[in-house]
Structures are given as C-alpha cells and as structure tokens.
Design brief:
It comes from Halomonas alkalicola. Keywords: Glycosyltransferase, Transferase. This is Glycosyltransferase family 9 protein. The protein is α/β, with parallel strands linked by helices. It has 2 domains: 133 residues, Rossmann fold; 168 residues, 3-Layer(aba) Sandwich (Rossmann fold), CATH 3.40.50.2000. The protein is built from 12 helices and 12 strands. The strands form 2 sheets. The chain has a 6-stranded parallel beta sheet with strand order 3-2-1-4-5-6. Strands 9-8-7-10-11-12 form a 6-stranded parallel beta sheet, with helices on both faces. The termini are far apart.
Length: 322
Amino acid sequence: MRRILVIRQCAFGDYMAARPFLVELRRLFPEAHITLATVTTYRYAVPEDLGDEVFVQETRGSLAEQWRSLRALEPVDILFDLADTSRSRVLTLMAPAAIKLGFPYRGVFNRLLYDVGLRRSNYHYEAEVLLDFLKVMGHKPRYPLDFAMPVHRQAESPRVIAYFPFASKAEKSLSLDSWCQLIDRAAREFPDYHHVLLEGHKAEESGDFLAEVAARQANVEVQPRMSLEALGPWMAGVSALVCGDTGVRNLALATHTPTLGIFFQTLPYRYWPRYEDLHEAVFLRSGEVPGSTDILQGLEELLTRVYPERGAPRQSVSDASS
C-alpha cells in the first residue's frame, strides 16, 4: 500500500475521533503516503499532523470547478470513506482506487461504491468504530487509544473543573441560565475546586453571561478563548470537563481528561469511551434535560472514582458556606 486516501468531511469533534484511526493507519502502513480529504466548509481542526497531504474538495465554485476538483486526485491503492455524506460518496465514486472501504447507512451503497462495507454502530464510541476498518485487515489497535495529543496526568492535575456551555446547535446544550445555576451551585458544593468556564472560538460563545456568578464566587472565573494549539495542553491540565455534546468534549476525550457529558438530544454511547474509567455520561431514559442535581451527582461520582486520594469532593451547601 503506497498511497492511501482517507475521506473525513466533518466538524471539529469528529476530526478528534478520527485521530486514533490515523495513528493506527500509520502503524499498519508506515511507508504509505496518506492523503486526508475534506471540503472547504470543514478546514478547522483537520488533523494535518497525522497525514502527508490534505485534499480540499471544491464545493462552492461552478460545476466545472467542482468537476475538476473531483478529477484532481491521483490513483490510490486504498480509499477509506469515513464520512458517508453525499459529497464523500461522489468523491468515492470518482476517485481511482484499487480497494474502497466505507460504512454507509444504506446497504445499497455496499454494492455500488465499496469493496468492503461495514455497518456503523451508534452504541459504541466513534473512535473505536473507525478502527474496525483496520481490524478487517488483521490489525491490532493499541488501548487506551492513542490520539497523538497531550495526555492528562491525574497525579499532577490541579483541582480545576472546566465547563463548556456551548454547542453547534443551541438546543444540544443547557440554557445559559441553567449553566449559571449549575456553576454557582458547583462552586458552593465543591469549594476545594476552581470552576472555570471556557469561552468558544465564535464571537457569540462569550462567558459574559457568567459575570455575576464570577463576581460572587471567588473560585469561579472565565477563561478567554484560546487557539486550538493552546487548547489541547490546557485541557490536559484540568481535573475534569463538564459539557454537552460538543467538539470540545471530544478534544478532552483525546487528551484522556476525565469528562462528564450531559446528553438529552443525542445518544450518549457514541461519544462515551468505556475502555478507560475516566468518563461519565448524565442522561435520563425519558429523554428529558438533566437537572443540576443529576449533573452534580454525576460529577461527585466521577471525581470520587478518578481521584480517590483527594477524599470526598463534595460538601453540603451549609458546610460549604460555613
């Protein structure tokens, strides 16, 4: 295998989930030239450090320009379609490859596009599902998964709990009022921890809404937005991250930082690694939004399990205020 094409047209969090696949792909074919294919919309966080070349499929120009873009790829020995979008299927069809692998949601594409088609499961962590393509070839992935990212060190981490209250869609996260109430209560009930709200890279992902809580609670602050290069090491240095279904949580998973995920719009299992006992998911079987009591109980259980040497992390409100 001298030339390999990996199609992954997705957002920040999904790129994070693809990193172990790329690490293990390099282990399996150390001499191969690996091209990562994306589209103009999703250039942010492309794992360029794990490939040799990035191919950007033209999706905004004229039909002629888009056609030329599709025909620009050189022949490859093997193609992995890790996206299963209409654009990735067109690229898979047009790209000259000796072997094509994908996991289409519709079985008909197994016969039309792929030599090997695998079923995608929504009940296993996405990063592990992607490794099935390499297991087909007899490869033995290493565990815990290697994301080629800074790694959290439990013994050295300061008592900092990070919160990321934003998501790609507002309905996938708690309301800002709910986040204020949650962090305010967490600051009182977990007084030995510093509680830091992380701003997002978008202008509207500001922490200004927490100003009143930060002024009232000495152990609450807002971390201004930072670059992706700085975010990885910073995330690896906190004790835990509390957030919803977001790309930032996927980054925390990639650094093996303990996480408490809050789920109600999406199934938790696809974003919940079970190969290491560092992650917990808060969700209700009814599909309702978890309340502060559910979330803080989950946080207490997570911190107790991951950092038993620190003792009980939570105090009652009366004890915390005394």
